[in-house]
Amino acid sequence: MPTPYLVIDGLTKVYERGQVHALRGLSFSIEKGEFLVVIGLSGSGKSTLLRCINRLIEPTEGKIWLDGTDVTRLSAKRMRRVRRRIGMIFQQFNLVDRATTVRNVLTGRLGYIPGWRSLLGLFSSQDKQTALANLERVGLRDKAYARVDELSGGQRQRVGIARALMQKPEILLADEPVSALDPATSHSIMQYLEQMNRQDGVTVIASLHFLSLARRYGTRIIALKDGQLVFDGPPKTIDNAKFKEIYGEDAEEVEVR
Amino acid sequence: MTGYPEGYTSPRPEWTTGRGLYNALARRADVAAKYFAMFLLDAGGLAALWLLVTYAYAWYVLGITAYILVPWWVFALGVVEGAILWESLGRSWGQKALGRELTPVSGEATAIRRLLYFVLWNLFGLTGIGFVLVPPLHERWSGLGLRRERPSSQAPVPWYRTSAGLFVAVLLVVTLVSALGVTLTWESLRRLFTQAGQTVEFWRALVRPDTTILLDAMRDMIVTVFMAVLATLFAVAVSVPLSFLAARNLMRGPVGRPIYTILRGAMSIARSIEPIVWAIIFLVWVTALRSPFAGILALWVHSIADLVKLYAERLEAIDQGPIEAITATGAGRLSVLRYAIVPQIVNPYISFTLYRWDINIRMATVVGLVGGGGIGQRLINYIWGVQYRQAGTVMILIVILVWAIDYLSARLRAKLA
Amino acid sequence: MSPTPGGAGAPRDRLKVLSRRAFSFLLDWMAWGYVAYCVMYLLNYYWYTVHVDWWGTLTLPSWGWPVVILATLELAVWCRSLGRSLGQRAIGVALRPVAGERISVGRRVLRGFLWHLSVPLAPVWIARGEEPLHDRLTQVGLRTETPDPERPGRRAILTQWGFVSLFLGALTMCVGWLIIGINLQVLIRRAPQAGRIWGEMLRPDFRYFTAPDPVFHLRALSYSILDLTVVTVFMALVATVLGGVMAFPLSFLGARNVMGFSPAGWATYGVIRGFFNVFRSIETIIWASIFAIWVGYGTVLAGILALTIHTIAALGKLYSEQVEGVSPGPLEAVWAAGGSRIQVVRHAVIPQVLPSFWAFTLYRWDINVRMATVIALVGGGGIGDMLFYYKNQGDWSKVGAVVMVIVAVVWAMDYISGRLRERIA
User: Fold this and answer.
1) Most B-contacting residue of A100, A104, A140, A145 (CB-CB within 10 A), to test interface
2) Which of B26, C43, C155, C234 could form a disulfide with B179 if both were Cys (CB 3.0 to 4.6 A apart)?
């Protein structure tokens, strides 16, 4: 049996100052092509988990094996090379507001470009073509040269997706991609993620707030509580009792249509 | 009412009433103003370029200072016609600045149409007749119109392919070339690289300050600090009441508005004269014997002008909510002032005052240089007496003083915020 | 039990509390020192038989200094023990008993005496992590004061602190008045002379606005007012461009978030920020006096160099504060895409800060034009040359013309740069 695509083994993260344990010995593995949804309350460690995978946050203990390489032990330079295979989209979009849409999308290419050329802002015309094509794909071709601060929230997140697409990622980390958006826009964003997952075979790891979205789009759900794994299984097996366990007794499931 | 059956009379046209006529005229004036702003930008830009090129040419080639080198009417005609020609070509710098482009309403933008546009602008645009209609006559008859620039799906044309971009680039290059030429001389550049030794005594003060002058310098520093403190206090006493008269939102009506305009204008003139110049004037007034007095008067005038502006701008930005609420309770004007306005402005006022005090400390040293007393006067005496080591020592003291006051006032202001 | 100042706790907290105590003590001492200075000044001024110079020479025999210093120290100590201390009030603490309601006067006096024994022993009690000896023996401590909600405060001006500040303010006014030599009689008596100057300045003589003034030469060329105005604006322009170009790279080295937290990063940050602060606190005109000695009196280059140095420091500080205030989101996104440190700066930091950089640069140009008009006083060149020349000649109507041109230029620059900044923001 081949080893799984991404293995997380005993991952622990302790924030030094307040002695806060964000993750406590988390272990699981993912196959290629899965759509994994991470759910849990705020502060349960979802964001920390995602950021540990591409080491925007250094894990305190534990190992992360991506396609057979131990990500936690790579040098900074090798890590950059791994990072360009890992796309990421963010809750607050993390776009440069003052720059045009296509500029923002092109920053997804930076991992591939030698330092001096990126310093002058010289992207190859092929990169520019790809950027426009990716904007076409998320339906924003007509806003390519508009400034990002003219766009709405949903449009900004689509720019974020186009930026991640520029990396030609094997794996996509989505950190609460829809929690700043309204329900209708949420669905359209999630559909883009689903499309990437189905058509391009990108493994997606998304953290979500709403169980209904998780059920609808995930092929597998894991739930975190206080940095520990409390549920791992296909979406169908998560029932009301499980839900109460994850979100606490008072929780009420909210439907997002 | 008139006895005619319904539908028989036509409604009175809008422009026959006074208000309607006014509205129609105002609308046309707006349009005309936009076109003239564009034209002024173009003509002004061309004029600036002409002046700079002539200036650089005269400086480098003829060895004189000159600005136009041609009769003034040639200059004026050239600039005006040049601007109109540039606008007919479609992408002038003024059009670019307002985000417009001259494009055909339908069909192709042929050379004939552009020529027509050029001529019509001269005939009807410059005279103002064409603006009776919207869109103006010269646009109507030439079949060209000003449109919003490209949609955001199109890549913008790179700057080096547009006349506006090239124009700005050329303007910048010519400006820098003539600025460098006029301000630098070979003699001074040569001295910059060979005469650094002249200042060696200053730097010697860093390692070996002259301690014998410390006590005297400290006394002068006390004078400087007192100058700043008193100038700020006296300025506050004057500018707090004045700031209410200089706030646009409080001064309305036929009495208030002139007061506001005059006060703001006077303050802005007083502010644009540096304290040093004020000090010169006051030195002659109170005689040079009482120099710290002249210095404090200069600081006082400049502080008033600055504080009134800062205070009044803060007053203009106050929240209207509390004023409404207090007025709604039936309170008088004074109560509104006391309970709705004053609580909103106390902390910002104190913070501006501290800021001004900080500036006054710096200014008090500078004012001393013309004979305004304090540490600055000691410094300039040393410099003119070629006692550079002592001057360096005084400079170290000034740095310490300014730094300490800067830190103190920043800390206090952070606490107030 | 709430942690008491100087008491048990982490060494770091203890140090913090102690330094706050030391600071408040220093404040008391300085307040008394200030009062002593003012009183001595007034005594000197009114009763000392030797004439006191107008700039306020303070005469004191050599043995007087230690006496004054010790006396003010004692006054500060007793003030603090008796519970009427400005310094304690400033940091919001007060002397309170460990147990019970009030502290008797005897205990307060005892604390005052014990203070003198306790302070030389300070290393001992600091090392043992105890409360100060004088507090421990008299069973009192400094506690944070919280206003009592039951007893609303009186109007600030009517409290003893109100009186103290009024007293200090009045003292400042009196002494300042004497030190500066404010004399309103002179102002009135000489009003006719001043009126003559104002009258001449308000009837400006624009004869040499465009025609070069033959009396006034510089560098073998005669200049008109217009010529020198153009030179002044060019000076400010060159200085702003040079200063901005140099401040731009330096500002990233002086930004906390770009430099990271390695020792080398800290060192660079400290050096650059120190450079900005020191060079900023020397005024342009003082720099000009140094450069005038260096590159020649009255050369425009001296003025440009002075303006440039000050511009680098001032713009560098403003720029690096902007860099520190960027939103971290885009930085994270570029990191996540595999960008290097330089790429993060180029593609996530610079696009965010560039508009405000432009705004600050324009603002600086505005300030530089103002500065350039007066820099000639110490040999920096520009329109000021003419201003001070005519003033020395006593030709006030030409001074008036120059001042009016300066006002017009400064006003126009202010307006244009204000409008442009509005558009950028």
Assistant:
1) A145
2) C234
